[in-house]
C-alpha cells in the first residue's frame, strides 16, 4: 500500500495562538474552559480542543494510531488576511516558516500549504514565490471568500497565475460564509451547512467565470467532500444550459467537465453513501483523503478505514489514500 496522505488538517502555531489571545477584536481567541474559541470577522471560526491542534508530538501519536503516514499542514480560521497589510505579511511568513520547521524536523511526515496575506495580492504572490522556492510548500490555502469578496474576482487572478506557474494546487477551505447572518437569524451555526455552501459557491464561481479555463494547469482541492457539488451536479448542468441560452455565457466546456478535470474533493466524511456519490461523479483519480484533524467535527479516526470500506480495487484505494495527493502536490512516495 502507498503512503497515506491527509490533505485536510490544521495545525495552530503556538505563537499565533498566543498572539490571538492578546487581541480584543478579530482575529482573536477566547478561552472557555478547556477549549479555545477563535473568532474571524467577530464570528466563531474554529475551536482548539485537542492537543494535536498545537502539539506536534501528540499529533504524530494520533496519526500513527489512525494509519495516517503524512499530513499536508494548513492554517484554518482565523487567518492573517484580517490584519493590516504589514502585520498580515509578517504573520504569513512566520506561520509558513513554522510549518517548514515542523516539516524539516519530521521529514516525510509533514508538508505544508502556504498561508497567504490575501488582503494584498502583490504581497500574496511574493509569499507564494518565497514559500515555494525557499520552504518547499506543496500548495497554497485560500478561503472561500476574502473579506467577503468572491474568489473569482479579477483582483485574485495573479495568485492563480503564480500557483499555476509553480504547479501548486489551491486548497479551498471555508471562510466565514456569505450566509452567516442569515443562518444566525435561523439559530444555525456556520459549521452546519454554511461552510460547505460557501466553498461550493467559491469553486463554482471559479468555473462559471472562466478562471479554470484561463488557468488550465491549476488544480483545486475542494474541502469537505466537494461541498454540495456532487449532489447537485445535474441541477448545476441544467442551470448552466439556461445561462448559456438566456445570458449568452460562453465557455468551451460544461461546469462538470471543468470540475472533473481540475478539482479534487477531499474525503472528509465517514458516511459511505455520500462518499460513493462523490466518487461516482469525480472518479477515483480525483478524490484525496482528508480528515479535518484535529477538529471534533472531523472524521480522522475513521478516515483510512472509510476509504477502504468503499470496496474499490487496491490501486484505486491507494490513489485515494495517497497517490492522488502525491501526484498533484508533487510528493515523492
Strand ordering within the main sheet = 1-5-6-7-10-11-12
Question: At the fourth CATH level, what is the homologous superfamily?
Answer: Metal-dependent hydrolases
CATH class: Alpha Beta
Described by strand count, sense and barrel closure, the largest sheet is: 7 strands, parallel
Could you list the spans in which at least 5 consecutive residues all have pLDDT below 50?
A: none
Decide which structural class fits the backbone.
alpha/beta
Mean pLDDT equals 93
| CA gyration radius, whole angstroms | 19 Å
| Domains (count) | 1
Shape: globular
Percent of residues in helical segments?
40-55%
Order of H and E elements = EHEEEHEHEHEEEHEHHHEHHHEHHH
Proportion of residues in β-strands: 5-15%
For the record, the CATH architecture stands as Alpha-Beta Barrel
Helices, by number, come to 14
**What is the CATH T-level topology?**
TIM Barrel
Fill in the keyword field for this structure.
single chain; 333 residues; 14 helices; alpha/beta; TIM Barrel; 3-stranded antiparallel sheet
How would you describe the overall organization of this protein?
The protein has 333 residues and is an alpha/beta fold. It has one domain (5-329): Alpha-Beta Barrel (TIM Barrel). The chain is 46% helix and 14% strand. The chain has 14 helices and 12 strands. Helix 3 (85-105) runs parallel beside helix 4 and helix 4 packs parallel to helix 5. The protein is globular and about 55 Å long. The chain starts with a strand and ends with a helix. 48% of the residues are buried. The mean pLDDT is 93.
Amino acid at each position: 500500500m502507498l503512503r497515506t496522505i491527509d490533505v485536510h488538517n490544521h495545525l495552530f502555531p503556538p505563537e499565533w495562538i498566543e498572539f490571538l489571545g492578546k487581541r480584543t477584536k478579530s482575529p482573536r481567541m477566547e478561552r472557555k474552559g478547556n477549549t479555545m474559541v477563535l473568532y474571524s470577522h467577530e464570528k466563531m471560526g474554529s475551536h482548539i480542543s485537542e492537543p494535536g491542534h498545537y502539539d506536534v508530538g501528540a499529533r504524530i501519536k494520533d496519526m500513527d494510531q489512525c494509519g495516517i503516514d503524512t499530513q499536508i499542514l494548513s492554517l484554518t480560521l482565523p487567518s492573517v488576511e484580517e490584519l493590516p497589510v504589514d502585520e498580515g505579511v509578517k504573520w504569513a511568513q512566520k506561520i509558513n516558516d513554522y510549518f517548514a520547521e515542523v516539516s524539516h524536523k519530521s521529514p516525510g511526515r509533514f508538508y505544508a500549504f502556504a498561508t497567504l496575506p490575501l488582503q494584498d495580492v502583490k504581497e500574496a504572490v511574493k509569499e507564494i514565490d518565497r514559500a515555494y522556492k525557499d520552504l518547499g510548500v506543496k500548495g497554497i490555502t485560500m478561503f472561500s471568500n476574502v473579506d467577503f469578496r468572491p474568489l473569482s474576482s479579477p483582483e485574485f487572478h495573479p495568485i492563480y497565475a503564480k500557483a499555476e506557474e509553480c504547479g501548486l494546487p489551491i486548497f479551498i477551505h471555508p471562510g466565514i460564509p456569505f450566509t452567516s447572518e442569515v443562518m444566525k437569524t435561523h439559530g444555525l451555526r456556520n459549521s452546519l451547512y454554511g461552510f460547505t455552501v460557501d466553498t461550493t459557491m467559491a469553486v463554482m464561481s471559479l468555473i462559471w467565470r472562466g478562471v479554470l479555463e484561463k488557468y488550465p494547469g491549476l488544480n483545486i482541492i475542494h474541502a469537505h467532500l466537494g461541498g454540495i457539488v456532487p449532489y447537485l451536479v445535474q441541477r448545476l448542468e441544467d442551470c448552466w444550459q439556461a445561462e448559456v441560452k438566456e445570458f449568452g455565457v460562453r465557455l468551451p466546456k460544461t461546469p462538470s467537465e471543468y470540475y472533473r478535470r481540475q478539482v479534487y474533493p477531499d474525503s472528509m466524511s465517514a458516511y459511505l453513501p455520500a462518499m460513493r456519490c462523490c466518487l461516482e461523479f469525480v472518479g477515483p483519480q480525483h478524490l484525496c483523503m482528508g480528515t479535518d484533524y484535529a477538529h471534533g467535527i472531523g472524521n480522522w479516526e475513521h478516515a483510512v478505514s472509510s476509504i477502504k470500506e468503499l470496496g474499490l480495487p487496491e490501486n484505486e484505494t491507494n490513489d485515494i489514500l495517497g497517490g492522488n495527493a502525491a501526484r498533484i502536490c508533487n510528493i515523492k512516495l
